[in-house]
Amino acid sequence: MSAPPVGATDPELIGPPPPRVTRDPMALTWLAAVGLSWFGDYAWNVALAWTAAHTLRPVVAGVVLGAEMLPQAVLILVGGVLADRYDPRRLLVAGQLGQAIVLVLGALAWTSGIRGAPVLLAIALCFGVAAGLTIPAGATLIRQLIAGDDLGTVQGWSQISNRASRLVGAPAGGILVAWGGIVLVMLLDAATFVAIAMVLLVVVRPRFRLPRALHERWRDSFADGMSYLRHHDTAMLFVVGLTALNVFVSPVTGLGVALRVSGSGWGAHWLGIADACLAAGAIAGSVVGIRWRPTYAAATAFRMLVLQGVAIAGVGLATRPSLVVAMAVLGFTAGSASVWLSATFIRVIDPSHLGRVSSVTSLGDMILMPLSVPLFGAVAGHTGVLTATAGFGLSMSALCLWFATRRALRTLRV
User: Closest Cα to residue 300, out of 342, 337, 346?
Assistant: First the structure.
């Protein structure tokens, strides 16, 4: 006998219904705080990369820059269990304040003369621990704050905020680390963590009551989450589909564009132009995703991503106009499809299992993405950039077409 379908209903309302998100001071303040935090994170990432590259041996710099991913991957499933057992708001407050304290201690150590790899490595490892334990709580908190009909709007605004924060935060990090050193960027990022923690404490209040996992033993909570995935086709399709997407996209946007620009002798500034086209397309796509709500959002999103696969293949063409068009289309399809998929994912997963299911998706990204980039590089090195982008892009198109035609997603109305 098949399990009952995954529901798409709002959890229990605690007080009066929330206002529309466009007139919701709490939701808007929360989104602004998240955008500020992303700004600090992008500034910190650039400052860390610059400092590691200029003060450490290349192999040590690589270890420092990749150190955050290990504890994050190890602990992300634990974070999913935490998000389904405890108050996600308190988990996020603890994570934000913990990262702020780590940065302040790092700044004090750097100022006192304790510098180099040990300090940078300690910060990266602590950040990885905090991220692994709290990332799933972000999805469950959104489910506590936002009504189901507004999830698409909030996810769209969130993606636009992320893109805008990257466009501003990354250059700001480079300017600030060159002007005031890494300590200045540490303190800036720490201030953004404190700001979002204060918003969580003072402004944010849950509006929907999420069922909590009541198992006495943690391993029972984890096993229950895995059982939920095994017995609910829609949830499993979402997890596999969302995890698979970045396997095809990230290697092309991260490495494929650089190989095409370098191999064609166009000059480094074309990397910036390509990235700007991607960002502009993603912002435009997110706006479309907010304003247009297809009835069958998941199937429509996967059909949109069939076109994205074609754009990925087009990145390998050796002309500047094709690169511009391909990156703009890639960004547009990613922006619109991500709004629909992320909102539908949050709404259709049982609120009592949202943290654990989202943690599995995050773990898939953490494991598969680092493997897919070297694979793309190997294919490009042996066969050429166009062959590699075409292989990855058309494989993605075929996979997304398969997902779009699954009955569990094709008939899913949210």
Answer: 337
What digits encode the pLDDT tens for the residues 282-298?
A: 999 999 999 988 989 99
- What distance in Å separates the CA atoms of residue 254 and residue 330, rounded to the nearest whole number? 13
Cα–Cα distances in angstroms (integers) from residue 344 to residues 99, 149, 282, 371, 396, in the given order? 31, 10, 19, 28, 21
d(CA 304, CA 124): 36
pLDDT of residue 267: 81
> Which of 49, 67, 185, 73 minimizes the C-alpha distance to 125?
67
Domain ranges in the chain are 19-206, 221-410
The two structure tokens encoding residue 186: 């540490």
* Residue 116 CA to its chain's centroid (Å): 29
Residue 306: both structure tokens together: 């069939």
pTM here?
0.87
Task: Say whether domain 19-206 belongs to CATH 3.30.200.20.
Answer: no
User: Which parts of the chain register pLDDT below 70?
Assistant: 1-10, 215-216, 414
Among 336, 334, 358, 337, which residue's Cα sits nearest to residue 347? 358
Q: What is the pLDDT of residue 10?
A: 66
221-410, what's its fold?
A: Growth Hormone; Chain: A; (1.20.1250)
